[in-house]
From TrEMBL:
InterPro entries: Cation/H_exchanger_TM, Na+/solute_symporter_sf, RCK_C
Membrane topology classification: Multi-pass membrane protein
Database matches in PANTHER family: K(+)_H(+) ANTIPORTER NHAP2, NA(+)/H(+) ANTIPORTER 1
Keyword set, alphabetical order: Antiport, Cell membrane, Ion transport, Membrane, Potassium, Potassium transport, Transmembrane, Transmembrane helix, Transport
Family matches, as PROSITE patterns: RCK_C
Subcellular location: Cell membrane
Listed NCBIfam families: PRK05326.1-1, PRK05326.1-2, PRK05326.1-3
Protein name: Cell volume regulation protein A
Alphabetized Pfam families for the sequence: Na_H_Exchanger
Length: 628
């Protein structure tokens, strides 16, 4: 018994350690890291190294705890500003989009496997949600900078669509095994939906506030605060689940609330949460990989690949397009969001429920879901960055990597202590003076502590400690940042800056182009906002005559504070013929109506001309006869 315990600990620790080291491989070769974790579990499993693990209930237990930690950390890292920007489209994707995806995939599963509608829709529900861990990792660590609205919508959707998929899966498992009549089962399903979503949201809001209050009021050792927080999160998850509500939705909402409130030891809590989230992802993917038996995949391989193709190329794009039509996303943005529909551990975790519940084809559903996840991570996970570049959605990073450490001040003031390491290629490293309000309180140079007055100009390698107002930290980041990828800033933000309040007519006169009637008196900033539809990001471009106008900087109210002018125009991104939004649809209908009216007018004119010609001929013939 003791030897078995030691062996299990040794194997588990080695698997986790190897999983951590595989991150080097993933970063170097661009492989989705979570795919590596999953494959590592398969290699170590029954058909690989021979580790036998077939307890589906234990796997679901481990996966549920891991997913609760991941969802809380996802909400904790989401700022309210990002949530406000993306709330409506993301929540529409997380509800309507999940249902549409489940229905389309379910129809494909019924056609391919010949299962009943309930079983087919159950498989559709299992693979209907995107994976928060995969999406967060690839968007935040993938090295691409996207428009804030697109990135925030994908992140909020991936964090909030799991409860809908979980609800649909549990409800359909209940229907598949229920003895009640169909009408009674549907009513029970509706009651369960409102209970899970409504009560889950309410308990999440209350729970997040209570968690912050408890953490702020108790006096503990600094190292105990993260432990207390995680214990409270899991208690909220369990209590909400026992109340027949969605514990997963509750912990995500609680994380969103807690992450946007002032909390004691928040920096230490954030670091521990990030580490726990990584550990949860590794544990969940390794466990699910060990649970799988690849030698059984051959029985469903080709139909499962067909289902994966329907999900990736039909169901997800249709669901995203139908969900986002009212929100004004461009065609390329909608196409990219349709492509970033990565499936992951949540789908495999949900596939355990039919096995545990004794649903017909339960083992086949698990194998199909596993294959679908592998196809999604390989195809979509490996191509996110190239697809973003192809669609022209990668916006320039305003500044590059910053070597910064946050230090916590006692109390709840509006100032922070930050420490920067001066990089040789940063603005400060090249001799740029820092503002008077940001003079360092301390400078570490060659192992010595120096006051700012005695240190002289800052030198590369210096570590500086600055006490600054929270709203000024972004400005300091720009001064101490490395160049963003070594790209010439003139290419990204224009050759020089112009006043955003200058009139369009004055700009046209200076560069020799014409403007439409009534447009000349409009300020450049107002014209750009109108052209961009009011959704502004730094780096956005508007072509005007022979030049490009670029949003160089936005103020705190998202108003254009600085405009760049590029003399060399950049080629516009490719415009897809699909995924029209409501503006495109309205414009098409208006153009069609105009063309139809023009065609009718032309036809009437031609008919009138023919009639006049005919009358003229008749008159000429009659006159001729009279003359004769």
């Amino acid at each position: 018994m003791i030897e078995t315990t030691y062996l299990a600990i040794l194997i588990g620790s080695l698997l986790v350690g190897v999983a951590v080291f595989t991150s080097i491989f993933s970063t170097r070769f661009g492989a989705p890291l979570l795919l590596v974790f999953l494959l590592l579990g398969l290699v170590a499993g029954e058909d690989g190294l021979g580790i036998r693990f077939d307890d589906a209930r234990v796997a679901y237990f481990i996966g549920s705890i891991a997913l609760a930690v991941i969802l809380f950390e996802s909400g904790f890292e989401t700022r309210f500003s990002s949530f406000r920007v993306a709330a409506l489209p993301a929540l529409t994707l997380a509800t309507v989009g999940v249902i549409i995806t489940a229905v389309i995939v379910g129809a494909a599963a019924r056609l391919v496997f010949g299962w009943s509608w309930i079983s087919a829709l159950l498989l559709g529900s299992i693979v209907a949600s995107t994976d928060a861990a995969a999406v967060f990792f690839l968007l935040r660590v993938g090295g691409i900078t996207l428009r804030d609205r697109v990135r925030s919508s994908l992140e909020v959707e991936s964090g909030s669509n799991d409860p809908m998929a979980i609800f649909l899966t549990m409800a359909l498992v209940g229907l598949a095994t229920a003895a009640a009549g169909e009408g009674e089962a549907v009513l029970s399903l509706l009651r369960s939906f409102f209970l899970q979503i409504g009560l889950g949201t309410i308990t999440g809001l209350i729970g997040g506030y209570v968690i912050v209050r408890i953490v702020n009021r108790v006096e503990l050792e600094a190292a105990l605060y993260p432990i207390l927080l995680i214990a409270l999160v899991l208690a909220l998850f369990a209590a909400t689940g026992m109340a027949q509500a969605s514990g997963f939705l509750a912990v995500y909402v609680a994380g969103l609330v807690a992450g946007n409130m002032r909390m004691r030891q928040v920096l230490a809590v954030r670091r521990v949460l990030q580490g726990m989230s990584w550990l949860a992802q590794i544990a969940m993917f390794l466990t699910l990989g060990l649970l799988a038996t690849p030698h059984e995949f051959g029985q469903v391989l080709l139909p499962a690949i067909a289902v994966a193709a329907v999900l990736i190329f039909i169901a997800r794009p249709v669901a995203v397009w139908m969900s986002l039509i009212p929100f004004g996303f461009s065609r390329n943005e909608t196409a990219f969001m349709a492509w970033v529909g990565l499936r992951g551990a949540v789908s495999i975790l949900l596939a355990i429920l039919p096995m545990v519940g004794g649903v017909a084809h339960g083992q086949a559903m698990f194998n199909v879901a596993f294959i679908v996840v592998l196809c999604s991570l390989v195809l979509q996970g490996w191509t996110i960055a190239p697809v973003a570049r192809f669609l022209g959605l990668v916006v320039p990073a305003r500044y590059g990597r910053v070597e910064r450490i946050d230090l916590e001040l006692p109390g709840r003031g509006d100032h922070e202590v930050v420490t920067y390491r001066v990089a040789p290629d940063s603005a400060v490293g090249r001799g740029r003076r820092i503002p008077r309000w940001a003079r360092p309180a301390l400078i570490l140079r060659d192992g010595r502590s120096l006051r700012f007055e005695a240190a002289g100009p800052l030198q590369p390698g210096d570590q500086v400690y600055i006490v600054a107002a929270t709203e000024h930290i972004r400005l300091l980041d720009q001064l101490f940042a490395r160049p963003s990828g070594g790209t010439d800033s003139a290419v990204l933000f224009g050759d020089f800056a112009i006043d955003p309040d200058i009139r369009v007519a004055d700009l046209a006169e200076a560069y020799g182009f014409e403007v439409g009637d009534g447009d000349g008196s409009e300020p450049v900033a107002a014209m750009m906002r109108r052209s961009l539809g009011g959704d502004l990001e730094e780096g956005d471009r508007v072509a005007v005559g022979p030049v490009d106008l670029i949003v160089r900087r936005l103020d705190d109210d998202d108003q254009i504070a600085e405009v760049g002018l590029a003399l060399e125009r950049r080629a516009p991104p490719r415009k897809l013929p699909l995924f029209q939004n409501w503006r495109d649809i309205v414009a098409y209908l208006k153009a069609r109506k105009t063309r139809r009216a023009a065609a009718q007018a032309a036809a009437q004119a031609a008919a009138l001309a023919a009639a006049v010609t005919g009358l003229a001929r008749d008159d000429g013939t009659g006159d001729g006869g009279a003359e004769v």
